[in-house]
Amino acid sequence: MDEKNDNYQFVLEPIHDFSGSLIAYELLTKFSAPGGTFYFRKDEKNHFYKLSQSERLSIFRRQIALLCDLYQRNDIAPKISVNIDKDIAGEITSSCSLQEKISQMPLLRFEICEFFSSNYDNDEFLLLKKLTKICPLWLDNFGAGNSNLTLVMKGGFEYVKIEKNFFWQHGSSNAFRDLISHLNAYCEGVIVEGIEHASHEEKLRTLDITGMQGHHWDAVKVDAIRKQLH
């Protein structure tokens, strides 16, 4: 399956531990801009959530088909996370065919963005509980403004990802160190985004961090990974 069309392409951004080992990828969507260039990282999520519900569901189904193909090619492919919103979550929990495909990919992970969980109402937590029975969840963008420790305590997340601007602003503080300790008590590990250079990595070495993600490591096209795994 080709990961490209006229409007977007898929890439995998690596997540590393302090030893340099790859522990996971995040599947990202790059959208075309006028002139044939692509928005990436800063703009792709904002652009994605401006699409219609049907467009977002179509892209998600392509992502799932793409990852099914990748995992079938090699059984040592790492964990790969995919961002989902409420509409996609509802589609997952109501679609037996999607759940069957997901069940065949035990290393697939879904990332729940902060805006998804800003209200903390009962229906939302019920949806999260349904999702955790289908696929392990990661909480994305912690620190951007909406999520808090209450959500982490109740959400049953495997990993929590610290938003990059929050790390850049607070990463050297004692409060940041305390936050990492609190988060680790309610999940299996913390991933910090926004690692742009070696000094960012060094800043985290004394903290109990599971993984790091950012421009310090190059993203790769999905097709290149599939060729490596063939």
Write the layout of secondary structure elements.
Layout: E1 8-16, E2 22-32, E3 38-39, H1 44-48, H2 53-73, E4 79-84, H3 86-94, H4 96-103, E5 108-112, H5 122-132, E6 137-142, H6 149-155, E7 159-162, H7 164-170, H8 174-184, E8 189-193, H9 198-204, E9 211-213, E10 220-221, H10 222-229
Parallel strand pairs: 2-4, 4-5, 5-6, 6-7, 7-8, 8-9
Antiparallel strand pairs: 1-2, 1-9, 1-10, 2-3
Helix pairs in contact: 3-5
Task: Report on this structure.
- The chain has 10 helices and 10 strands.
- By secondary structure, it is of the alpha/beta class.
- The chain has an 8-stranded mixed beta barrel, surrounded by 5 helices.
- Helix 5 links the parallel strand 5 (108-112) and strand 6.
- The model has no long low-confidence stretch (mean pLDDT 86).
